[in-house]
Design goal:
The protein is of the alpha+beta class. Helix content is 45%, strand content 22%.
């Protein structure tokens, strides 16, 4: 889980945190079979888990390598379609995760073919 996501989670109320944790667990359980309205596709292997917290909609960008473990990358405020900058930020975070050792380079190569 990238630092941006950890920071965002720590700022949530207990109720919102529980709601988000439930949906992350659901994503882990169903993986690529969890689709709309919960998950939408971004370019390549990137996906966004959509979360309605009160009047706001957030998105957690993520990838799920063949290992099956989810890499949560960035937090988006979902006011519309993801912008190119949002996608690039998620891709940059993947590289940061590889450098930091929380994602393996082999997993990233697998994503390029997904």
């Amino acid at each position: 889980m990238a630092p941006e996501v950890v920071g965002w989670l720590l700022e949530l109320s207990d109720d919102d945190f529980g709601f988000v944790a439930y949906h992350i667990d659901l994503l882990q359980e169903l993986g690529p079979h969890l689709g709309d309205p919960y998950v939408r596709r971004l370019p390549g292997a990137l996906r966004v888990l959509r979360l309605h917290l009160g009047a706001r909609v957030y998105g957690l960008t993520h990838v799920m390598p063949a290992s099956g473990r989810i890499a949560l990358l960035t937090v988006l405020r979902e006011d519309g379609p993801a912008e190119e900058a949002d996608v690039q930020r998620a891709l940059d975070t993947i590289q940061h995760c590889v450098t930091a050792g929380s994602l393996r380079a082999e997993e990233v190569r697998d994503l390029a073919t997904a």
